Amino acid sequence: MYKKILCTMAAFILCTNIVFADVKGSIKDIDSISNSLNTIFLSILKGDNYENVKKDMQFIQSQINQEKKDILNKIDGTESTEKINYLALISVLNYYEISMLEVKDYYDKNDNQSYIRAVSSFNEGDTIFEIIKARLNYNQK
Question: How far is the C-alpha of 118 from the C-alpha of 105, rounded, in Å?
């Protein structure tokens, strides 16, 4: 009788949907956001008008918002070391968002300083992102 109960409980535990936090999945998503931002900076250097860049920026903004939401949902059930990594990833996303706001300001005011600040914010976020990847020994495949 006890064996049946134990087997039933074991099967229930193994078959339930248990969600484990996966920092590396978030890293892949943020890596694609980073690549998209690089493309925007190249478009600006090519002289593309704001209407062409605006669609890409809206898409990237939606990716940033979704990734922040996903990370905040994952962060609750994590240990302190994993929580540190997630909070650092949110920091990276914040730098990327600041960079996007500076790009918008660049187009609105035609201010070259805004473009420099945009690139600078992106580079700060990218530096933190590279440190996180190195700390986790993340290898892209």
Answer: 9
Domains held by the chain: number: 1
b/e string for 114-123 if b means 16 or more Cβ within 10 A?
bbebbbebbe
Its domain, for residue 98, covers 21-135
Running DSSP on this structure, what letter comes out for residue 16?
S
Both structure tokens of 109:
């005011």
Q: What is the pLDDT of residues 14-71, one digit of tens each?
A: 444 344 446 778 899 999 999 999 999 999 999 888 888 889 999 999 999 999 999 9
Q: What are 116-120's contacts with CB under 8 Å, separation 24+?
A: 118/41, 119/41
Q: Give the span between the Cα atoms of 89 and 103, in whole angstroms.
A: 21
Which residues are within 8 A (CB) of 92 and not within 5 positions of it... i.e. 6 or more apart? 30, 125, 126, 128, 129, 132
Residue 89: inside a domain, yes or no? yes
